[in-house]
Design goal:
It catalyses: nicotinate beta-D-ribonucleotide + ATP + H(+) = deamido-NAD(+) + diphosphate. It is built from nine helices and six strands. The chain has a six-stranded parallel sheet with strand order 3-2-1-4-5-6, sandwiched between helices. Helix 4 runs parallel beside helix 6.
């Protein structure tokens, strides 16, 4: 059943960008637009999570975070979703597994910043994630080198695509991943929350 879920047709290439988006900001928009272009995606879905298991404190209410994210976006190829709340999944591996079952024939790509690749080996069933979908890594300030030397990067190094083949990522057999460098944005949700608190 896909009630309330985004529409996708077999053969489409869809990037999945998960996170708390607390709050969403132009940095998220920038990496999304870059992913659409560099990985030749038809759509990017923002998976606004009900809560991040790796974070000690809960985020702002889900509806508030989704509303803010929608205000930021003007590109019709980007869809803000509450998929994890609807599917009642908390772990990325479970979400991806459910989406692959609900959307047979769709080519999903998991998107992450290089800062997330550094800690990817701490994620629940991270090897299973890499076996289910190709992974597109987008460089973030200060973590390009750390990401290259990350535990997950070393374990998966034989399946890394050269940058010039980034456009083939969505159609590549798994495991497959690529890291692309982007113009740097130092915006982060943490910094924005801190600044908002300081203004108060």
């Amino acid at each position: 059943m896909r009630s309330g879920l985004p529409v996708a047709l077999p053969g489409m290439r869809i990037g999945l960008l998960g996170g708390s988006f607390d709050p969403a900001h132009e940095g998220h928009v920038n990496i999304t637009e870059a992913a659409l272009q560099r990985f030749r995606l038809d759509r990017v879905w923002w998976l606004v999570t009900p809560g991040n298991p790796l974070k000690a404190h809960g985020p702002a209410p889900l509806r508030e975070r989704i509303a803010r994210a929608q205000k930021l976006l003007v590109d019709p190829h980007v869809v803000v979703t509450d998929i994890e709340a609807r599917l009642q999944t908390r772990m990325t591996a479970d979400t991806i597994s459910a989406l692959k079952h609900l959307y047979p024939g769709v080519h999903f790509v998991w998107l992450m910043g290089s800062d997330n690749l550094v800690q990817f080996h701490h994620w629940d069933r991270w090897r299973e994630i890499a076996d289910m979908v190709p992974i597109g890594v987008l460089a973030r300030p200060g973590t390009r080198l750390a990401a290259r030397n990350a535990v997950a990067a070393q374990v998966l190094r034989r399946w890394r695509l050269p940058v010039e083949k980034a456009g083939l990522l969505a159609d590549s057999p798994t495991p497959a991943w690529v890291q692309v460098n982007l113009p740097m944005s130092k915006l982060s949700s943490t910094a924005l929350r801190r600044a908002k608190g300081e203004r108060r």
